[in-house]
Design goal:
This protein is mostly helical. 58% of the residues lie in helices and 0% in strands.
């Protein structure tokens, strides 16, 4: 009788343990799927990140500076058309003016899985057009807030010179003996630009 009881308890213990493992796995999967923004690859060297970020930010033509200005604040328009185009451009020195702040401010819940930095960095990586198509619906589902779209003139790293920049930065990384995979070059460009913005402008009003 005692052996039978022990046998049954042993089986129940195994069943309970298995159930707990399965439940824990479900929670992990749910949390991973709940985060609408993936993590982006970045290099460890701060000096190199700043150099790459500065190069991309200040690139002639349609670099970030063309809208946000060399000091992180929009340049005054020389015509009514340009002034109107620039009216919604955020002041990079003050994250409270960023659209990502408006999104996170309406975030329904307390979680470290979604931050203003996540949203801002994903915008630099994807550009507004792809962000609006891919992430806006997922952000809405995740936060419970209204969809806030980004202005499509915000192109992030996706300038006309994107391919040329990718090749140039790949060569620079190889010269610096930095290990990376080809598929990560876009991430490295994005995180470097954002690192430059954080260190050059944020808090420098």
């Amino acid at each position: 009788m005692i052996q039978k009881i022990n046998y049954l308890m042993g089986n129940n213990y195994k069943s309970i343990l298995l159930a707990l493992v399965l439940i824990s796995s479900l929670f992990v999967v749910a949390n991973v799927e709940a985060n609408p923004v993936r993590k982006y690859m970045e290099i460890d060297r701060a000096d190199l990140k700043l150099l790459i970020g500065e190069k991309l930010y200040n690139q002639p033509g349609d670099g970030c500076w063309s809208c946000h200005g060399a000091e992180g604040v929009k340049a005054d328009g020389v015509s009514d058309e340009i002034a109107k185009k620039h009216q919604n451009i955020a002041d990079l020195r003050n994250p409270a003016t960023w659209t990502s702040f408006k999104i996170i401010k309406k975030y329904a819940g307390e979680s470290e899985m979604l931050s203003q930095r996540d949203i801002s960095l994903s915008l630099v990586r994807l550009g507004a057009d792809e962000w609006n198509k891919e992430l806006a619906p997922r952000i809405r589902e995740y936060t419970g807030s209204n969809i806030i779209f980004f202005d499509e003139q915000m192109i992030g790293i996706h300038s006309k010179l994107l391919k040329k920049n990718a090749r140039s930065i790949s060569r620079r990384l190889k010269r610096e003996k930095v290990k990376f995979k080809g598929r990560d070059i876009m991430d490295i460009m994005s995180t470097s630009v954002f690192y430059y913005i954080e260190n050059k402008f944020v808090g420098n009003e």
